[in-house]
Known about the structure:
This protein has two domains: 131 residues, ornithine cyclodeaminase, domain 1, CATH 3.30.1780.10; 175 residues, Rossmann fold (3-Layer(aba) Sandwich). It has nine helices and 15 strands. Helix 2 crosses helix 3 and helix 2 crosses helix 9. The mean pLDDT is 96.
Amino acid sequence: MKPKPGKELLYLSQADVVAAGVTPAEINARVEAAFRDEAAGTAWTEPKLMISRPDGASFRAKAGAMASPGYGALKWFGYFPGNSAKGHPDFSPLILLNEGETGLPVAVMDGVWISAVRTGSVTAVAARYMARPGAETAGFVACGAQAYSNLDALMAEFPLHRVTAYSRTLASAERFAEAAKAKGLEARAVADPRAAVNGQDIVVTSIPHTSAQARFLDAADVSPGTFVSMVDLGFGWRKDTLTGFDRVVTDNIRQSGPGGAEKLNFDGTYAGDLADVVSGRLPGRMSGGERSALIFAGTGHVDLAAAVAVYEAACAKGLGTMLPL
Length: 325
C-alpha cells in the first residue's frame, strides 16, 4: 500500500530496499528509459550540489525528475574520506522521493544499494550500445562493491562466461573471482592489471581516485573492439593516454563536460552523452575494432529511476515503515 501524500511518508531501510527484490535487469531497463526520456525532454537532471569543507569533507546532492511516472528525487550524502578508520563508510546516502502530481514527499529510503546498482546499470546500458554484441569476457580493475554490482548488471545483458579480476590486494581479486564462479562463470584473479584490461570485450575500472594507486592504467593496453566503463571518473587511468580511445562518451555533457560540476580525469572531447546514444542521435558503435570508453560520475535522474522501481516494489510487498507527516 502506498502512503497518503501529505499525510504519510514511507521509510525504507537498507534491508527493505534489498527485500524489494528489484532485479538488475529491471534496473537496467529503468535506467535506459531515464536516458531515453531525457533525450525526449520528459526527464530532467541538474549538476550536483557540493558543499566543501576545508578538511576535505563535503556534503553533496543529486536530483532528478520525470514526467511519467511522475516523480522527483533528491539523493543527499556527506562524503568523508577517512571514515573507514572510524569504522564507518565514506558516504551513506539517503534518497527523498516526491510524487509528481502535488510535489509532496512519499518516501525516504536508504541509498547505498541504489547507488551501487544504478551505477552498474549505467555501465550495462552503455555497453548494450557500445560493446561488442554478444560480449563474453569482462575484466575488472578494483574489486570493491562496484565490481559486484557492475558484474550483475552486465550478466543481465550479455552472455558473459569469463571474468578476469585485478585489485589492490590479490585477496580482494580472489574473493571477487570466487563470487563470479558462484554465478557460473569462469574467473581468475591476476597480479598484473594489464591482464584484466587486454583482450577483454568489456572492462570496468572502479579505482578510488583518492587511492595511492590511482592513474596507473594505460589506454594503449586496451585491445581493439573493447568497451571500457570508467566508474572511477577516469582517475584509474593516466590522463595523457585517454585521448587514444576512438570515442569517449559521458553520462551527461552539462554535468561532466567543459565547465560542468563534475571534474573527470579527461581533457579530451566527448563524442556525446548517453541520452544521445540511447536515443540514436549518436551511434553506439562505429566499427568492430573501435575502442570506446564511458567516463561518468552518475546523475540524479538515474538515482530517481532506480528509487521509483524500489518504491513501487516495496509498496506492492508491504515493506517499510509508515511514518506520519
